[in-house]
Amino acid sequence: MPDETSETPHQVALSTKVLVGALIVVSNVVGAAILVGLGAWVLPFRALVSDETAALRTNLLLLGGYAPLAGLAAFAFGWAWLRVPEPPGPAPTAAELACHRQRARRVVLRAPVRLAVVQAVPWTIGVALFAVVDASWSRTLAGAVACMIALGGIATVTVAYRFSELVMRREVARVFVQEPPTEKGLPGVAVRSLGAWVMGTGVPLLGVVLTAGTSLIYADYFTVQRLGLVVLVLALVSLSVGFLVTVLSSTSIVASVTAVRRALRRVEQGDLATRVRVSDTTELGLLQSGFNTMVAGLRERDRVRELFGRQVGEAVAEAALAGDVELGGEVREVAVLFVDLVGSTALAATRPPTEVVARLNVFFTEVVDAVERHGGWVNKFEGDAALAVFGAPQHVDGPATRALATARELADRLERRGAHAGIGVSAGEAVAGHVGDARRYEYTVIGDPVNEAARLCDLAKRSRRWGESGDAAWRGVAASGAALERADRDEARRWLVIGAERLRGRTADTRVAVPRDRHVTTSLDVTAAATLDEATNGVTRR
Questions:
Q1: Number of neighbouring beta carbons within 10 Å of residue 74
Q2: What residues contact 199, with CB distance under 8 A and at least 6 apart?
Q3: N or C: at which end does the chain have fewer Cβ atoms within 10 angstroms?
Q4: Cα(171)–Cα(104) distance, rounded to whole angstroms?
C-alpha cells in the first residue's frame, strides 16, 4: 500500500491534474474526430444539401474555430475547480482548519462530477451552434448533426468521467485517511452500473436506431451499401465505446472488492494491522471504511483480551469474553500453592520504592514462569505474595502432582535469584467461581486447601527449623499430607513427611512434608517422622 499522509491534502497533486487533463483532452479529441469522420464520410449528410462542398467547408471551419476555444475554456475551468483554496493564516483556529479540510474534501470528492459538467457544457453549446448554422442549409441536416453531436458528446463525456474517477482514486484515498466517506449525493454503485450500460451501450445503439429510422423515412438518401456501411461503423463504435466504459466501471468495482478480499485473507491469517486504502466514493468506499472499522475493533478486542488475560489469566479472560460469567461457583478438586517473599517488609523500609518494585517483579516473574510451565494459574498477587491454583478454571490432570513439582522448581529458581520465600502447597475440594458483586467481581477459589496452603507458607517462611525440639530442618517449602495423598507415586517419593503441626486457626493437625533434597536431619530420633513418611507413601495414589 502506498504511503498516505494523515492529513487532508491542501492541494490536488500536480501530477494528478496533468494526468486528468491529458486524458480528458485525448478522449474529447478522439470523440470529436470520430464524429467528423462519421459526418463527412459515413452518414449521408451530403445528400441533404445542394452544395455539399460549401456545407462541409463551413462545418469544418466552425469546428476548427470552436473546438480549441471550447477545449481551452473547459481546461481552464477544470483546472480551477481542482484547486483547493489556500489554508488559513499562520495560526489558524481549529474551526478554520476544519472548514478548510471540508472544502478540500468537497473539491476532491466532487472532482469527477465537476469535470464532467465542464466538458458537457461545450458539447451542449456545440449542439445548439451547429444546429443553427446547418439550419441555413437544411433543417433535416441541422437535426441530424445535432443528434450526432449530442450522442457523441454523451459517450465522450462518459468515457472521460470514468477516466477521471480512476485517476482521482489516489487523491480520494488521501482525503479518506482522516475522515471516512460520508458524502451524500455522489453517484453510487447502482448509478455507476446503470450509467455504464446507458452511456456505453444504450446511447451508441440509439444512434443505430435513429439511423435505421431515418433510412425508413428518407429512403432516397440511403442505398443498401450506404445503410450497411452506416450500421457497420456505428455498431463498431458502439462496441468499442461500450467495452471501454464497461471496463473502466468494472475496474473501479473490482479493484475495491479485491482489496477488501485480500485484506480479509490477511486478517484470517492473524494480521490485525491490515488496513484497506479507502479510495472509492460509492458504497464500496463505505465497505472499505467499514472493513477498517471492523479490524480496528478486532485490534481493540485483541488488546483488551491481552490486557485482561494479563490481569486475570487467559482462561478466565476467554470465559469472560465469551459471556460465560455469573456470580457463584462450583466444587472442584484443586491444588493450591501459596508463595510469600521473605524480608520484603525490611526491604521496603530501607530501599527506594523503585528498587522494591523491581525486585518484586523479578520475584513474580519466576513465580509465573514456574506455575504456567506446569499448567497452573496465578490467581492473584497480594503485595509480596502470590496464590496459584491447579485444576481451575480449566481442568488439568493431577493438579496435586503439578503443584508439588512447581513448589520444588520454584524454590530452586528463587534461590538462584538470591531470593528467599516461603512456599506452601495443599490440595482438596474447593469452590471455584466468581465472587463479588455484579458491578465488581473476580474469579477465585475458596476452601480449606487455600487456607491450609497459606498457613503452610507461613510455617515455611517463619523458620527454617520445624518443631520445637529442632528435629528437622528444610529450606522454605512445606506441603500438606493431603497434597501428597493426591499426587502420583513418582512425585510423592520426592517428598518426606516430617511430622504434624497444628496450624494457626485450624482445629486438627496437618501432616507436613518437605522435599527430600531439602531435608536435613538434626536429631538422632527420627522414628516418628519415618513412621509418618512410610504411612503416607503407602496410601494408594489417585
A1: 22
A2: 154, 155, 158, 245
A3: N
A4: 10
> What pLDDT is attached to residue 466?
43
According to DSSP, the residues that pair with 390 across neighbouring strands are 335
What nine digits make up the cell of 420? 528467599
Length of the chain in residues, anyone? 542
Which amino acid appears at position 380 of this protein? K
Residue 31: what pLDDT?
80
Per DSSP, 83 falls in state: P
DSSP 184: S
Global pTM reads: 0.58
Give the cell for residue 211: 439511423
pLDDT digits (tens, 9 = 90+) for 90-127: 677 777 777 777 777 777 778 888 888 888 888 899 88
Segment holding 253, helix H or strand E: helix 224-268
Side-chain-side CA neighbours of 382 within 13 Å: the count stands at: 10
Rounded CA gap, 470 and 465, in Å? 6
DSSP sequence for 347-404: HHHHS-HHHHHHHHHHHHHHHHHHHHHTT-EEEEEETTEEEEEESSSS--S-HHHHHH
Question: How many angstroms separate the CA atoms of 434 and 194, rounded?
Answer: 59
Going by C-beta distance under 8 Å and a sequence separation of 6 or more, which residues neighbour residue 400?
335, 390, 427, 483, 484, 485, 486, 487, 491, 542
Q: Which three cell numbers stand for residue 208?
A: 443505430
Distance CA 454, CA 504 (A): 10
User: Residue 86 in 3-state DSSP?
Assistant: coil
If phi > 0 it is left, if psi is from -120 to 50 it is alpha, else beta; for residue 348 that is alpha
Which 3 state secondary structure label does DSSP give 413? helix
Q: Are strands 421-437 and 477-480 parallel, antiparallel or unpaired?
A: parallel
pLDDT digits (tens, 9 = 90+) for 415-454: 888 788 899 999 999 888 777 766 666 778 888 899 999 9
Taking the C-alpha atoms of residue 243 and residue 236, their distance in angstroms, rounded to an integer, is 10
Q: Which of 2-16, 129-143, 238-252, 473-487 has the weakest average pLDDT?
A: 2-16
Strand partners, 386: 339, 381
Domain boundaries, the chain: 14-283, 327-537
The DSSP-derived string for 283-345 is HHHHHHHHHHHHHHHHHHHHHHHHHHHHHH-HHHHHHHHTT---BEEEEEEEEEEEEEETTHH
Q: For 327-537, which CATH superfamily applies?
A: Nucleotide cyclase, GGDEF domain (3.30.70.1230)
400: left (phi over 0), alpha (psi -120 to 50) or beta: alpha
Cβ within 8 Å of residue 423, ≥6 positions away: 337, 338, 339, 407, 410, 411, 457, 460, 476, 477, 478
SS3 275: coil
Q: Which amino acid is at 185?
A: G
CA distances from 458 to 123, 142, 479 (A): 95, 109, 12
Mean pLDDT along residues 189-201: 72
Report helix, strand or coil for 506. coil
